[in-house]
Amino acid sequence: MKKLEKIDLFNFDLEIGKQKPYLPLFYQTFGQPIGTAPVVVVNHALTGNSNVTGENGWWNDLIGENKIIDTNHFTILAFNIPGNGYDENFGNLISDYRYFTLRDMAKIFWKGLDFLQISNVFAVIGGSLGGAIAWEMTILEPNKIQNLIPIATDWKATDWVIANVLIQDQILNNSDDPIADARLHAMLLYRTPKSINLRFQRKKTNEIFHIENWLINHGIKLKNRFRLSAYKLMNHLLKTNDITRGRKDFLSIIKEIPTNIQIVSVNTDYFFTADENRETYQNLKSVKENVFYSEINSIHGHDAFLIEFNQLAQILEPIFNKQKQQNYVNA
């Protein structure tokens, strides 16, 4: 794993009116040194982290040498959401998780970018929770981001998302085995009946169905690498997603944003549904020209953004290859 770097933040004002005297912000960079190439900020999802490429990189199929997001041509920057537990001591956890909102995290990321003296970002990209933070980052600093690429996410938490966050929160606060049990529920939300039925086909070993083993193993794996307070925080942030909170209505906000917006949804997503994303796109088109919509076709549901790499690469190729060509011209 590439070495983690840390930025110390002091006296950070939370959206709810409280202040955190100290917050460590951990991050990793890949590719070209800061200040020498266009910057791509990659926001991780609920159980992800800043290790986006290289050894154990969770987006190795998209990010790396000669990949779509090419480390030969871009500076890749990935922050860890404070409290996710992925840091030098796997500590610095947040117990008062309900104090934080997704907007707080977006502001923290901008604090990090300011510290690194990055004033212009070629693209902010993220899936699920990371994509929601990308939306909020764009609203906060619309003139600093050229391309917003939210994947399998939305600019708001729908009632459906809020309901599932509540179920997860109840499990995390009441179960005897909270992380594992919450993961059982989450995995069924992130996949589809067709995906699971085709994969397991009612097979069993020693009277235990393979689907049961698969779910139990996912619960064990997450429990071994994720802290309870971190899971509570990441889950809670999902329901605080709303770029219009305390602001104008959605279209009025978007009118003022010059950023190119490339929405990517998954046709079978049961969490951030494609219907919601299509509606967002149609509304955006009424006030903004440089907005685009693409859809990943998959039986795998929400998690397709971590599975269908070929389709995602094809969607992203025009954005990143155009910039690479510009890099060659300016070299």
TrEMBL record:
The keyword Transferase applies. One of its GO terms (molecular function) is homoserine O-acetyltransferase activity. Residues 38-159 form the AB hydrolase-1 domain. Coiled coil: none annotated. Keywords: Transferase. One of its GO terms (biological process) is homoserine metabolic process. InterPro entries: AB_hydrolase_1, AB_hydrolase_fold, HAT_MetX-like. The active site is at residues 128, 269, 302. It comes from the Bacteria. This is Homoserine O-acetyltransferase. It comes from Flavobacterium dankookense.
